[in-house]
Each structure stands twice: as structure tokens, then as C-alpha cells.
Amino acid sequence: MSLRFRQLQAFHAVIETGTVTAAAGQLGISQPGLSNLLGQLEREVRFSLFDRKRGRLVPTTEAEVLFREVDTVVRGLDHVAQAVSDLQNKQAGQLQVACQHSMSFDFLPRVIARFSQSRPDLAISFQSQYSTKIQEWVAAGLFEIGICEMPLLHDGFVVRRLHFETRIALPEGNPLAQYDELTPELLEGQPFIMMGSEHMTHRRLREAFQNSGVPLRPRVHSHLFRNLLSFVKEGMGVALLDPFAMEFDNSGGFVSRSFRPRILMDMAIITSSARPLSSVGAEFVETLLREIEPYLVAAPSKGRDGTQA
């Protein structure tokens, strides 16, 4: 098998943009040229990459698996190209940050914007992604700083652990808003909007209800805290959310209350122990820790899966 990077780049661009037209524009080549690259790649891998449905290219199951591997390669070369460009242009520095989703929508862009005000020549690379991918990127040197959820799946990180208290989001007008603090007993019968079964908040919420002898009533499962909050605002149930999903949402339609037993989100700022942190990166980490400090709580006691009375 003789795979060429340009073929992988074309494949990556089509999945990211959704169309051959957009992908060709992104890569600066003609549509026939891009289609030719895809055809070459399909002949090399010997399976179909896309099905055409209603005029759109839909990745096959095999293509989705391949994309996860190709994504790291393509982004890695993009970072190399950016580094070369920075050196050629003698830029003052580059900030490379990858963050899990809940902090990425409002909180972290504000921190980065304030940080960059006194650094007008700073080049910024920012990406939101799932925590497992962030760890891969930092380990591979594609990003210098990662903010991710625990657990850590790789060795070789300098780790700054973070713990945040979750809260219950209720639809506006829910009678339970009369309470300052909610418990499994008070929430009995309420439909829950929940993260997937492998997420720490799902496991810890289920444990809290089991320990209280109260049945938990899941109604909707989703993969982002922001999605959970949207379902809450639509009146479909209540949700256990980290503070960043609610703190910067000014659209209304919900209220939040404390939950007992306390359930924490365990997160970390990670950098590579194999590569020294740049001066810009070190300054940003210190800034980020100061900005996060008001949201932090003490680490959970040992022997419990993140719940505290």
C-alpha cells in the first residue's frame, strides 16, 4: 500500500467540510482534482469511503475509523506548517491550547482574549475536542496545553488537577426551585437529561441515587453539557451540569440549585513532561489557574467516586 499525504488531506477535508466543493476550496485545488485524490485513496485502501445520500457525501463506517487516525496526522502537519510560518515571520510566539467542550464555548475564549490583549503579535491555535483526543494531542506535541476531564490515559504529563462542583439545572418554573439544595429524595420521579453512561457525572449521579434508595429516571442521553442544558430549557427534564455550562448562558429558561451529596467534576490542565513549556505557555497556564480559581473546590475524599456529603 502506498498512501500519499495529499490523498489523506483531501479525505480529511471532505469529512471536515462536508462537501467536495468546500474541501477543494480549502485545499486550493479543483473539484476534479480532489475527486481524483479520493479515487486514488479508495483504490489504495480497497473499501468505499463515502456513500452519496441526497446529494451529500456521507462517510462509511470504515471511513469514520480511518478519519480518527488521519486526523492526528493531518493536524500534525498543519502545526508544522504553522510553526514554519511563525519562524519565517518572526512572530512573538504561539499559544497552543486544546480544551474539552464545556469550557471552550465562552470561558476559555474570554481568558485567551484578555491574555492576548498585551500580546498583539501572538499566534493562537485553539481547538475544542473530547478529553481522550486532547490527551493524544498533547502527548504527540500537537498542542502545548490541554484542559481535559479525568482520568488520564497516558503517562508523561505534568498535571495540575482541578475539581469543580456540579449543580442541578431545572426548567424555569419547576416547583423544586423553591429549594436551595436538592437531594435524590426531592428529585425522585424527575426525568433526567444525562451524559453517556461512561461519563463520570453519569456514574456518580447513579451512585448517589442508589445509595439513597431512590430510583433514577433517565430520559435523554447526550454528549455535551451544553446539549443537556438545551433540553432542560425545553422542559424535558433536569440535568447535573458543571458550572461552565451554566455560568455564561444568559438566555434564561432555567435555574440551578446545589445537589447533595456533592458530585464533583475532576479535570486537569496537562502539559508534556518531555518538552519544556514555552514562556508564553507558562504565562498562560498561570493566568488560567488564576481565572479558574473562583470555581475550584477541594479534592474529593478517598474511597468515594466523587460524591461528598
Features of this protein?
309 residues; Arc Repressor Mutant, subunit A; 42% helix; alpha/beta; 6-stranded mixed sheet; globular
What does this protein look like?
- This protein has about 300 residues and is α/β, with parallel strands linked by helices.
- About 40% of the residues lie in helices and about 25% in strands.
- The chain folds into two domains: about 5-70, Winged helix-like DNA-binding domain superfamily/Winged helix DNA-binding domain (Arc Repressor Mutant, subunit A), CATH 1.10.10; about 90-309, 3-Layer(aba) Sandwich (D-Maltodextrin-Binding Protein, domain 2), CATH 3.40.190.
- It has eleven helices and 14 strands.
- Strands 3, 4, 5, 6, 13 and 14 form a six-stranded mixed beta sheet that branches. Strands 8-12-7-11-9-10 form a six-stranded mixed beta sheet. The chain has a two-stranded antiparallel ribbon with strand order 1-2.
Choose one word for the global shape: globular
Which CATH C-level class of the largest domain is it? Answer: Alpha Beta
Number of helices: 11
| Overall tally of structural domains | 2
Round the mean pLDDT to the nearest integer and report it. Answer: 89
Which regions have little confidence, pLDDT < 50, spanning 5+ residues? 303-309
Main beta sheet, described?
6 strands, mixed
CATH architecture of the largest domain, please?
Answer: 3-Layer(aba) Sandwich
- Overall structural class, as computed from helix and strand content, comes to alpha/beta
Order of helices and strands: HHHEEHEHHEHEEEEEHEHEHEEHE
Q: Give a count of the beta strands, DSSP E runs of length 2 or more.
A: 14
What name is given to the CATH topology of the largest domain?
D-Maltodextrin-Binding Protein, domain 2
Fraction of residues in H or I helices: 40-55%
Strand content: 15-25%
Task: State the end-to-end distance.
Answer: 58 Å
Rg calculated over all Cα atoms:
22 Å
